[in-house]
Amino acid sequence: MTIRVAIQHTTTYEFDRLINVAPHILRLRPAPHSRTHIHGYSLKVTPEDHFINWQQDPFGNYQARLVFPEKTKRLEFAVEVIADMTVINPFDFFIEEYAEHFPFAYDSLMQEELAPYLKVTEQSPELDAWLDTVDCEEMVHIVTFLVQLNSRLANEIDYGIRLEPGVQSCQETLTLKKGSCRDTSWLLVQILRNLGLAARFASGYLVQLTADVKALDGPSGPEQDFTDLHAWCEVYLPGAGWVGLDPTSGLFAGEGHIPLACTADPQSAAPITGATDPCECEFSYTNIVTRIHEDPRVTRPYSEDEWLNINALGRAVDVELQSNDVRLTMGGEPTFISIDDMDSAQWNTEALGKDKLRLAKDLLLRLKAQFSHGGLLHYGQGKWYPGEEVPRWALGCFWRTDGEALWHDPELVARVDRDYGHGIADAERFGQTLCQQLGIDAGYLQPGYEDALYYLWLERALPEGADPRKASLDDDLERRRLASLLSRGMESATGYILPVEFDGQGWRSSRWPMRGGLITLIPGDSAMGYRLPLNSLPPLTEDERVIERDPFEPREPLPVFAIGEEAATTVAQQALQQQKSAVNGSKSVVRTALCLEPREGKLHLFLPPVTHLENYVALIHAVEATASALQLPVVIEGYEPPKDARLQKLLLTPDPGVIEVNIHPASHWDELVHNIETLYEQAQQTRLGAEKFMLDGRHTGTGGGNHVTLGGATPADSPLLRRPDLLRSLVTYWQHHPGLSYLFSGMFIGPTSQAPRPDEGRDEALYEMEIAFQNMPEGLVDTPWLVDRLMRNLLVDITGNTHRSEFCIDKLYAAGSSSGRLGLLEFRGFEMPPHARMSLVQLLLLRCLVARFWNQPYHKPLVRWGTQLHDKFMLPHFVWQDVKEVVDDLQRHGYPFKLSWLLPFEEFRFPHYGRQQIDDIELELRWAIEPWHVLGEEVTQSGTSRYVDSSVERLQVRLSGLTEGRYVLACNGRRVPLRATGKKGEMVGAVRYRAWAPTSALHPTLGVNTPLVFDLIDTWNGLSIGGCSYRVSHPGGRHYETLPVNSNEAEARRVNRFWDHGFTQGVLTPPPAFSALRTFYEHEQVPRPMAPPEEEPGDEYPHTLDLRRKYTRI
What we know:
Number of domains: 6
Helix content: 10-25%
Distance between the termini: 46 Å
Number of strands: 50
Radius of gyration: 36 Å
Structural class: alpha+beta
Protein name: Transglutaminase family protein
InterPro entries: Bac_transglu_N, DUF2126, Papain-like_cys_pep_sf, Transglutaminase-like
């Protein structure tokens, strides 16, 4: 993600006459110790008739001595510096143990060497008074001490531009409480020296680039790219060396601080010194910074011009899809994580967490305000997995597609973070009023109680001496529940139950016949609606079974309710009696119930399952009318509305490490753009992000994926059910192009991943799939069930799980339930893109392919990739070449999709580790994909688990500028198999290696293979002409314990693991052919020039050198 900039600095002196110019000293060349990589430097001096000598001053800084033999009226110095703004972590340094805490003392030798930087040159009462406020008695970590000192000066001394030469005295700066950057820096130098710390004055360029993303809190930096001459301070820390402090901003010096001169005194660091004859002079200067190269990056993936082109193509594809009557809708399940907490379990492994629920509620309210008119907020219950104490929550927002309000007054929706003081009396009062709204006798309202006998038994089972009314968070859920109930008392009702259903004519109810006359709830922590004793009701007869509504059944417009109108009357007016009865037999016991439960000071209404949306809308209207009449806000929970195309849904649920947003589908490109951009924007405002960073700085998605769904406005409109050959085209095309699977995937791929390809792990699957394709009809069909029957047993993982598949057809036309017959195809192989526009480009690619296959189906034989899939296509080069073929194919069919639009995905998926220029040859290292193995079962504290072996990694090596047959690349003394790319002088290969040694992994006796040392061997001369080295952890032993907090820290971690030096020294001799003869060689080594390692056979994985595997010559 490097940005290369050009700094153009011009200083001009216009004189009123011809004058003599004395020799000048220029300190305008980046110092040798600059950590910012300098690519180029140029100095132009006017007048051109001059002499120049480059020198280094006593402090090692570059300086130019200029002599002007002739008189001149103009003196100008024009400097241009080309620099890479690669992120530098200013805190990435080691400190000697004795210097870790302030105060400390330098050793005697170091004091002598640092004498000029320890010399105190200013004393004043103001400075002494300021120093007296610094606590030098308490030991504090030196970095913390310096941060506090630097920040304090930045806050106390105001910044002001001062064009006068020289530096203010410390007394003057402290008195005025204002100064230029050089004044504040010199003050900090003197403060540090008075405190016994060696400090020096630094003069240089400051470069500040506009941030791609505005900060949510704190300053975002300059509105435009900026550069100027600047001054700061550097302090010497044993072990770390010189560390830059910028008291103007209060920050430590980073990549934007490019030193020109660092000296003990400011006079020695002046950018320009010299003299002229007496004259009148007009002085001017300019400082300009220009971006001359920017690597693709996810924070700004596309320019505005590119985005105009992308939008234009999206709208053009829209026109084609509409003219061809495709009726395509697109939705998805993006996932987000906290931007403030990268390390806690709730944002890495666990599904539930306190912060996760709070942020999800905030995001839901924001999205409701953006997307829905008169939306209904619904707090439901989601999935419940083994090992989890309680079911997961599901926060939903539902709204009508006809523009009418489903819920009119948002003030009648109780805020979940507020205690209204609602109690059991409010629940009874609300229930009685609701009965009037529904036209039901209030006598059917029955209280529900907790099972006192069960909790009495549970209390008696406690250990002796344990107080049943007290429990801590460390106690199990059952114990905490018991303490809560005993504190509240179990003699009062938990809530009220109103059995209710619509029988075709109106709402009806019945009493629940229970032994003992009371309704006793099933023990648990869920809402009482989930704990109803339904098994205690009379057995269900065959005639009473609920008939699910067919999703293909035609729908009439939904009823429109007026405010204050009774639901029972309105239902009759809207002819709801024309619907078929969901329950046959009016005298039977009503088994679905609405529950009213006061909980945490709020009245929660648990809605029953309803088969027809018309009934649900009428019930919601009755609830709101009751809440309005009583002015009693409520929380709606329980069962969601029945799935229906007349209702849009937005759902937020927790998944391990993420919050998943089930976004409502869009029918048009502009609507899709609005949905995705709004979602990303509101998530950011909620302090949720779409990216995370691994411990070593690698950039990844959230880890929860970004599943994309294709379908229609109704199941009957689904293009996949109307044209089964569309699914065949998509599956075949993805199988032909592994690049589509791996460019957009997450880190975990392979047969045991969440979204395996059809040809991963099941060799015979392709054979059977070709038979299924032969039986798939062409064109439009009137048998929507056919595509599901043909593909259901083929689009599965190795265990037969239909959900874990790259192409998931769980909700296409599953025979089990109406919720499975929605006409949806889910692409599960997509990782979460970190930017909204990247996500939209991904969706545009899908839309182009759907339009292309609708016009011309793609029916080709399936390819048996074999081991190439996890060898060749693990490398970014071949993935990119494959995706290039896809783009070329789209362009041939009239879709001007640009390959450059996918560059941000390549940079995101395959981060760049480093480059090394060796003469005319460039060596580049990039991250490559490594499929992880799922290990055997192991017993853990939480039960039986199966670990994933993530200890093996892979990287790609690319060489360009090679002479054919001359060079060989070795890694750790073994030959890297290089394959030609089709471009002259360019070859790529892969290295597979053990990066770390976990307790559970394949081959536990193998050690790690790092660091990786690469040698480029010239076979014609028997010499290593250069190389580089790569590490998986910090080379200085600074093993990180927390994840990077942002992309800057992550980039800095990645950069410091690559060294453009460190090739093998001496003679690199491959081992003898027979290791038994090793002892017969003198010094056990054959004395000869460097010879290339022998080529190792690679029949199965010809593109990869596996350092874990020993090569034995036969």
